[in-house]
Specification:
The protein is built from seven helices and 14 strands. It is of the alpha/beta class.
Length: 264
């Protein structure tokens, strides 16, 4: 019997603007972490303990170059299954996830979707109402392809796979550099400037013309829309939400967000 998500937390690693997602179906049950960062392992462990969760899976959407993954440390400390999509560097501690594979965590199902282009091992993970897109599809952007990626392959991952999901599907990326947290497939189809192309050739030309400001960041970085105090306040808000009572979604990432980005 499939369960509905009861626990959902979006955590931010500010130095790399990386989002980590904690998902569980119930207090006291099994949990999943997506894209955990090594520097924040203690936070994850405290959060799991506070919510009385047992970490069953830790997943990376792809091999990260802008931060150190926490997969190995979490496997050692929690005995969880550490996994990453096929096609990337082989690690003795991590299992491989293949395209179409269904992961079951205490009644919650995620389907692995191979979405290469940013990297060969880029995977997205699809649930009934949301998709975790890694660096393939960002909010108003797409992952860069100039560090061993392939824009032509990424085009197919975007237009042939992710953008065919229902418009109401919530989009949770691995990064955002402008203070945004969630979007939807409908909004990205309509508002993402990199998706307003008419052919694969146009998309390849667009991606080849980008000049990212930082070799570590996965998108062109614009001036932050946050006030000078914004990053600190957002981090405090994320921690406060993470440690909130566990009987429902944090308001900022469920009811309000869904209403704001769902397709009309």
């Amino acid at each position: 019997m499939l369960r509905r998500i009861m626990l959902f937390r979006q955590l931010v690693h500010r130095p790399s603007s990386t989002f980590t997602y904690l998902i569980a179906s119930r207090p006291g049950g099994e949990a999943l972490l997506i894209d955990p960062v090594a520097e924040q392992v203690e936070l994850y462990l405290r959060l799991l303990e506070a919510l009385e969760l047992r970490l069953a899976f830790a997943l990376d959407t792809h091999f990260h170059t802008d931060h150190e993954s926490a997969l190995e440390v979490l496997r050692e400390q929690t005995r969880c299954i550490a996994a990453r999509g096929e096609g990337g560097p082989a690690d003795s501690f991590a299992c491989s996830v293949s395209d179409g594979e269904i992961l079951d965590i205490d009644g919650l199902e995620l389907t692995a979707l191979h979405t290469p282009g940013h990297t060969e091992d880029s995977y997205s993970f699809v649930m009934d109402d949301r998709v975790f897109t890694g660096d393939t599809l960002l909010i108003r952007g797409t992952g860069r392809t100039d560090q061993g990626g392939d824009a032509r392959v990424q085009y197919e991952s975007l237009f042939g796979k992710l953008l065919t999901l229902p418009g109401r599907t919530l989009v949770y990326p691995a990064h955002d550099y402008n203070g945004r947290h969630v979007s939807s497939i409908a909004d990205e189809r309509r508002l993402n400037p990199r998706l307003q192309v008419t052919s694969v050739e146009e998309y390849v030309t667009l991606m080849q013309g980008l000049m990212p400001e930082s070799p570590l960041q996965m998108d062109v970085v614009n001036d932050s829309c946050l006030r000078p105090s914004g990053p600190l306040m957002q981090q405090l808000a994320s921690l406060r939400a993470a440690l909130a009572p566990a009987d429902t979604f944090p308001v900022s990432f469920s009811a309000q967000t869904s209403a704001g980005v769902a397709s009309r």
